[in-house]
UniProtKB/TrEMBL annotation:
Residues 5-45 form the Regulator of nucleoside diphosphate kinase N-terminal domain. GO terms for biological process: DNA-templated transcription elongation; regulation of DNA-templated transcription elongation. It comes from the Bacteria. This is Regulator of nucleoside diphosphate kinase. Keywords: Kinase, Transferase. Gene3D superfamilies: 1.10.286.20, Transcription elongation factor, GreA/GreB, C-terminal domain (3.10.50.30).
């Protein structure tokens, strides 16, 4: 796997994600492990310090699946909010976990089930809670 770009994670998101990781069942174990690696390597900062170009939880992100040359818009959510979010993608889904903490312009190679990989590029952050002053959502 290629070197992954540096990531920045909201401290509150990191705490909530760690609880999800700790409670992951067998079907989510591979994603939970990858997400835990991301938390360990990421720079964790207070919510007010999240730059406007970083994907945080509840951000609406425009990204491209480079292999398929397909642009996608999704809102990165916790699993419990998936049903209530029309364009939601769970952070416990492989692609959702890949998006966390990336900046506009970043590209990441990320493992998928079955040994495949996806290459994603962040094109825009259409909405971000920290940018809107929602630091404790």
């Amino acid at each position: 796997m290629a070197t992954r770009p540096p990531i920045i994670i909201n401290r509150l998101d990191a705490e909530r994600l760690q609880r999800l990781i700790d409670e992951a069942d067998d079907k989510d174990l591979a994603v939970a492990r990858s997400l835990e690696e991301e938390l360990a390597r990421g720079e964790v900062v207070d919510p007010q310090q999240i730059p406007e170009d970083v994907v945080s939880m509840c951000s609406q992100v425009q990204f491209t699946d480079l292999a398929r040359e397909r642009q996608i818009i999704r809102t990165l959510v916790y699993p419990h909010a998936l049903a209530a979010t029309e364009d939601g993608i769970s952070v416990m889904a492989p692609v959702g976990a890949a998006l966390l903490g990336l900046r506009i312009g970043d590209t990441i190679d990320w493992p998928l089930p079955g040994g495949r990989e996806v290459q994603l590029r962040i094109d825009a952050i259409l909405w971000q809670p920290e940018r809107e002053g929602q630091f404790h959502r």
